[in-house]
Amino acid sequence: MIPQPPGENNSPAPSWRLVPFSEEHGPLVCGWRYPAPYNVYDWPDWTELVRRGDEFADEELRRHQYVAAVDADGVLVGFGQLFPLVSESGTPIVRLGLGLRPDLCGGGRGVELTRLLVLEARRRSPGCTVDLEVLTWNIRATRAYEKAGFRISDTYVRDTPTGPAEFHCMVSPLHNFGGIR
């Protein structure tokens, strides 16, 4: 059984690690609810996700692309998707998708999760470019990604389940992050 988060989290800077994203993590992530306007990141109910066989409800996709971030006690604090792509020139790209537990958002803790995911992407695909997409209005996330070393490389509009939206594509440079290994 996966430990549940405490009601309050007043711990100092986290010491997190990545583990395989298990089926037990799915209902927890699907139960996370973000306040507006961040509620666009809410996942559907786990039962619905399983019915559709989408994203981390798909066992094969979960095994190959998803990781869970846990704290020192094994409590789920976030997750990441490492989506493999190839550039027009043939360079491997890993596009990150990530989510931080709602009670941990807004306190600067997304930086460590982002850095851990970059390191995992480079472990899985040495020499790859690591990028991510972020909605342009999400200044909080953009700042966290910048603190993790990402820089905006492009801005564009693309379709989403709720209609067209403007995104930044952000790219991480090839370097290590002070002390996180």
UniProtKB/TrEMBL annotation:
<dbReference type="InterPro" id="IPR000182">
    <property type="entry name" value="GNAT_dom"/>
</dbReference>
<keyword id="KW-0808">Transferase</keyword>
<protein>
    <submittedName>
        <fullName>GNAT family N-acetyltransferase</fullName>
        <ecNumber>2.3.-.-</ecNumber>
    </submittedName>
</protein>
<dbReference type="Pfam" id="PF00583">
    <property type="entry name" value="Acetyltransf_1"/>
</dbReference>
<keyword id="KW-0012">Acyltransferase</keyword>
<feature type="domain" description="N-acetyltransferase">
    <location>
        <begin position="16"/>
        <end position="172"/>
    </location>
</feature>
<dbReference type="GO" id="GO:0016746">
    <property type="term" value="F:acyltransferase activity"/>
</dbReference>
<dbReference type="InterPro" id="IPR016181">
    <property type="entry name" value="Acyl_CoA_acyltransferase"/>
</dbReference>
